[in-house]
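Recall from the previous chapter that SMILES is a line notation for molecules. Here it describes pyridoxal-5'-phosphate.
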Amino acid sequence: MSSLFPTYDSWQIEPDVAKGSWLTSKDGTKYLDYTSGIGVLNLGHCNETVKTAVEKQLATFWHTSNMFENSKQEKTASLITNASGLGHVFFCNSGAEANEAAIKLARKATGKNKIITCTQSFHGRTFATMAATGQEKVKVGFGKMLEEFAYIPFNDVAALVNSVDANTAAIMIEIVQGEGGIHKIEQEFLDAIKTASEKFGILVIIDEIQTGIGRTGKPFAFQHYQIEPDIITIAKGLGNGLPIGAMVGKKELAKHFGPGSHGSTFGGNPVSIAAAEATLQVVFEDDFLLEVIEKGNYLINQIHENLKDIEIVKEIRGMGLMIGIELVNAGQPILLELQKQGILVLTAGPNVIRLLPPLTTNKTELDLCIEKITKVIASKQPVS
Ligand SMILES: Cc1ncc(COP(=O)(O)O)c(C=O)c1O
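With both inputs in hand, we obtain:
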């Protein structure tokens, strides 16, 4: 009998060691890990640069509090503001906390309450972020949700126009819906968001928790489009495995988040900050990001080529190294069969196989993944 709350259906794989794109389990099986700890290990397992930075910090001090001056937080924040064009950073420990901060700031800065999000979105598991999430399944059994969230179908301009009003504080979106099945936003929808935000004084919050930190081949996925967010939220890849999140906002929002308005004991912890600084110095390099785009194009093109005539494949979608293969069949049996073949992948919703390789992966590994996925998916017949 486990002593853990059974909140996860855990896989029957216990990691022993992991390095780069590879994970070896306690029973000695070696896996190509294209889950990256759910989009966290953008530089792969046990990255040496991050490890050295963390070890250096561990040898000095581990934690103080945010009452102390902190030049390392400042330096890491400026890497984020320089790459995003935004003005200020609030450090926290997770994606949900980053979104929680964004929701609080948007309400305080605008003096309004309503937040519009999209159906099939995912924004976290705290009370506000669960309410923000446009999926009923995450809310079941938790009673009355935090009020004043409205949901519109993703990319539905007419629904957006109908939903915005004088009480709308913010519109919160993902550029690629990750948990919702790897769906990309359309420029037309972003144009409508921009028009509405200008008309009603609405803040645009972009949740970059899964898409940020180089995952799509730009520092942040919004940079593939014409849109200027007021706030972005990041976490996952930010610390390459150490827990850290951040809410990043325009300069003019700073006056609404003064002393005493918001906080976090562990937010911006020196060890996590050391990991984030080292990670960002690698990921935000132009050459590194160009390679992400090249690898992403190679992977999606090869998947298209290999799976185009397979009956159970419905659609292949992606951006950079964030790729979804939508099937007519359930994804879970395919995920389990890929595990037997030594490949770790994720699902996104019931029918989508989701690939989130480390951004440092190489062609040999990509080819291995393509070969195994083709073999497993090609062996399946449609299940009605
Ligand atoms: C887009 C998005 N937002 C928010 C979250 C929540 O992040 P965390 O699990 O770190 O709280 C996730 C996690 O999967 C996510 O994908």
